Amino acid sequence: MKFTENREEVEKLGVDMLGYIFYEPSRRFVGEHPEAALFEASKPKVAVFVDENAFEILALAKNFNFEFVQLHGKENPKTCALLRKQGLTVIKAFSVDDSFRFDTTKAYEKEVDYFLFDTKTPLHGGSGKKFNWEILNRYKGYKPFFLSGGIGPDDAADIKKIDHPKLTGVDLNSGFEDEPGLKNIEKLKKFIEALK
Length: 196
Description:
single chain; alpha/beta; TIM Barrel; two-stranded antiparallel sheet; 5 helices; 9 strands; 22% helix; 20% strand
């Protein structure tokens, strides 16, 4: 989320969590001085970081009352464990392509709450591209995961066909935007109704 009014509209749709990007190169970056109202949500909030200092993450989470952090860079298990010990729910993202080895996630299993599997690209997320979802069958870990990467308004039926016991949710982003950070309410509404 990037705009307060848009966040309020999205929240009414029955989403489970709201994401906020604190990675400056991203087109969805919340900005250097975001207005406080942007974060006054009743839904759980996820702060998204890429290779940020753990103490900076903790400070931002405290200042804006975040319950979740999503780590989208090369953060190691120790960093995840440190954040978790401070009471944050940690989502560790992994960039997936056809050659991705899911045993890479094992070192993180005891240190995070969720994984997020996104499409591998030169950038950190927001590419609008899908990876081959059949690869998810290779994941045998016990941590629940979110599916991310290029999900669009027409994908609800295909997502419902994914039969994986650890799939816990989907991350909706660029496929539902009118511009970076501005979600299209009608597209989201139709997708959520189709998915449920």
